[in-house]
Amino acid sequence: MSEAGFDRRMLEALTCPLTQGTLSYDSEAGELISKRARLAFPIRNGIPIMLIDEARQIE
User: What CA–CA distance (Å, rounded) separates 34 from 50?
Assistant: First the structure.
């Protein structure tokens, strides 16, 4: 497991809740990024928060 206990293997199972597309991991920000939805989902205490209301908009 890496930073904050996030297991990168989770990326294989997780998809964006809005687009159902793939996610990428931004280790600097500690977020999962959905490029198609232009959203960044936070990771708190090693747990990805996959709620659209909790995500921040990215450009």
Answer: 11
Joined tokens for residue 4: 């904050």
* pLDDT tens per residue across span 5-45: 678 788 889 999 999 999 999 989 999 999 999 999 999 99
Looking at CATH, the fold of the domain delimited by 3-57 is given as N-terminal domain of TfIIb (2.20.25)
**Per-domain boundaries in the chain:** 3-57
| pLDDT (0 to 100) of residue 4 | 53
Q: Are 24 and 42 in contact (CB under 8 A)?
A: no
- Phi first, then psi: what are they for 53, rounded to 5°? -65, -25
Cβ neighbors of 37 (< 8 A, separation 6 or more) are 16, 18, 19, 21, 55
